[in-house]
Design brief:
The structure is a homodimer of 386-residue chains. Chain A has 386 residues and is α+β, with helices and mostly antiparallel strands. Chain A has helices at 13-29, 40-47, 74-83, 104-108, 126-129, 141-146, 151-174, 181-199, 268-284, 291-304; strands spanning 34-37, 59-63, 69-73, 89-93, 117-120, 135-138, 209-215, 236-246, 251-254, 257-260, 316-318, 325-329, 342-345, 348-351, 355-358, 361-365, 370-372, 384-385. In chain A, strands 4-3-2-1-5-6 form a six-stranded mixed sheet. Chains A and B meet through helix 3, helix 5, helix 8 and strand 12 of A and helix 3, helix 5, helix 8 and strand 11 of B.
Chain lengths: 386, 386
């Protein structure tokens, strides 16, 4: 596989039909007659229609043949018809909550024969599961179908990577000691959103966002402690950047460890260990490689450098519709990489109270290895900003 | 109840303890020994810690006495400790997915005796429900506790209403024929976000957002068809605005039907019908009023004006932590309003292919009636912009 050229076109009917075929093949393997999708990400993957979860459920009921049926509230049916990129049948319910006999479950249950074997997502809420007829099987066939991207999907992610690559460049220009987080968050987010709407004026804002932030050294050891906007950038480092975007429905990320002005003496060694761990993952990432083995090798490199206690997370995760999904480059994921998967490679070292070290890229698995779709400086020299 | 003065202070320990007491009282009524919360909104309500749902679950295990236990990944425990506003016990798991014996469910299941009666949310994913020990009871005790706001919560929502009130004023200044949606969305969103961070420099961005958009007449008949950013505003109307915000964890909204330059002749009658339907709801909204009866009366007013076929949704919904929650001013909600509830009053009339008519406000139920916490022009005259 060569890296596809970026595209911003909406998915064709053929593309959405291919995705449905993939799901149906897995439904047959799982021996289910009907599949019910509640997860808005999965519904978007199959239909190009985006919703967010609220008390009025959207449910896509997928038979092995014939049109999928969208169960949606009256309020939304015109919206679904306007946005869906494929043919659907519709089953409309009045409102939530409705008087007895007119609720979503009254409509929903008529669509599924009681003798059917019905596949459902592990994310399905118990309140919906309990009202789903048939013999239920929890099986994530749509997540499985999403693991290997179509060429079209990759071309969309390539475009999204151009946005975060430009956003990260902007971030490194703005980030100086004393600059508050708000300037970076506001400036880079707006810069990227402007790029998105320049490239895709009709981008669906329900599946579009772009975010950029820097964890200054006072919190970079705690990778999920979202900074507050008044927090100033500091002299030295390590600072850790996060630039993520979901661009009209396709998610990616780019992150770097960097320094402002100088590198504290203690920080060079963990930075070098992180680079070596990262190089180990890149060298192993190819079709057939077992995800758990990559994570194990990465952890061994970090431990050999003496930072085994500074590992807080796995080596990476998948991308696609979202910026955070399967497969997982994690000790517990025994699956093999395949050509056309998209993963992050982002081993991290977190020295408690002192600072964190992590680069992350959006990486495509190719026929014989991998290639990063995001670009930013990588070395300590290039990431020490005067 | 008088309307509390706006506050932006973080919730005190006493406030969070009061919320936990409310939940425990309902746990006792529901005869459960332990409650498990997965919903990030409910976890935020009880702890002031915000997370978003991804494949690594956060689970709050609440016994009848003693500290609630937060089940969280290693990656997040420092983050939770930094943000939680109350004392918690912690149960940490390694990663997702982890090797056998080290996953979230291995830790989680040790926290609950198999003989316990365990309450769970109807939103709990089946994949977590299946791994929850004990005799399970689906009961939404935290949603029930959230229905009536504490004075502190109302004071936070009062502040959030100041933001959307100012945002809506800005929106009406920017909205002119030919102006693209992007200018309104970008301008008003940034204006409101600047206000939020002026007032609350430490606002948690995981539970902070502000959005403003206008549905021009070409789509205002379809209330959930999110406009695209290239869409220009038009001469005439009806345009329908939506200004919403979640301000450091407290959600509200303000919406208006308005016209640019002139009012098409056909539009005056449905506008008047909408105003009358709205006045009906305001007149009925007081403690003891049955929600379904308000919606029934509102629908009758709209039908009497000849627009019965133009109703797409209920009269309103609740506010609190989010901008969209129970109770529901809907035919199917037989509960009574209580002092301290916050609801939207937003009956809508949607003339297919021609335009929509809806005002929405964030309304507090007081001891003997109700009061809107949001302010914007209401009449056809005031909403016809030269």
């Amino acid at each position: 596989m060569t890296v596809p050229v970026a595209t911003t076109a909406a998915p064709s009917r053929a593309e959405l039909a291919e995705r449905l075929d993939r799901v149906r093949a897995r439904m047959r393997s799982a021996d289910v007659d009907v599949y019910v999708s509640f997860d808005p990400v999965n519904i978007y993957y199959l239909t190009n229609f985006a919703n967010y979860v609220h008390e009025r459920p959207f449910l896509l009921v997928i038979p092995l043949d014939g049109l999928p049926v969208m169960v949606a509230p009256l309020l939304e049916t015109s919206h679904v018809r306007a946005r869906a990129g494929c043919d659907l049948a519709y089953a409309t319910y009045a409102e939530f909550p409705a008087p007895a006999g007119a609720n979503w479950f009254d409509v929903f249950r008529t669509l599924i024969p009681t003798e059917a074997r019905v596949g459902v997502e592990s994310a399905m809420p118990i309140g919906i599961f309990e009202r789903t007829p048939g013999t239920k099987v929890v099986v994530d066939v749509i997540e499985e179908a999403r693991l290997v991207k179509t060429p079209y999907e990759i071309a969309r992610n390539v475009h999204a990577c151009q946005i975060v690559t430009a956003g990260h460049e902007k971030l490194l220009q703005l980030c100086r000691p004393g600059v508050p987080e708000a300037v970076i968050y506001g400036g880079v987010t707006q810069f990227m959103m402007a790029m998105v709407f320049r490239d895709i004026p009709t981008a669906n804002i329900m599946v579009t966002n772009a975010k950029a932030a820097v964890w200054p050294p006072s919190i970079s050891f705690d990778p999920h402690r979202i900074p507050s906007l008044g927090m100033p950038m500091e002299n030295g480092g390590p600072h850790v950047s996060i630039v993520t975007a979901q661009v009209d429905g396709y998610g990616v990320e780019l992150e770097r460890t960097f320094f402002l002005g100088y590198v504290p003496e203690w920080a060079a060694a963990p930075f070098a260990a992180m680079l070596e761990a990262r190089a180990t993952a890149y060298a192993m990432a190819r079709p057939g490689a077992i995800l758990a083995e990559i994570d194990r090798a990465v952890r061994a490199v970090i431990a050999r450098h003496g930072y085994g206690d500074c590992i807080l997370h796995r080596t990476g995760h998948g991308f696609g519709i979202t910026g955070h999904e399967g497969p997982y480059v994690a000790l517990g994921d025994e699956r093999a990489l395949q050509e056309g998967m998209l993963i992050s490679i982002e081993p991290g070292i977190y020295v408690a109270g002192r600072g964190g070290f992590r680069h992350s890229d959006t990486v495509l698995i190719t026929a014989d290895g991998c290639v990063s779709l995001t670009q930013a400086p990588e070395t300590l020299e290039a990431l020490t900003i005067a």
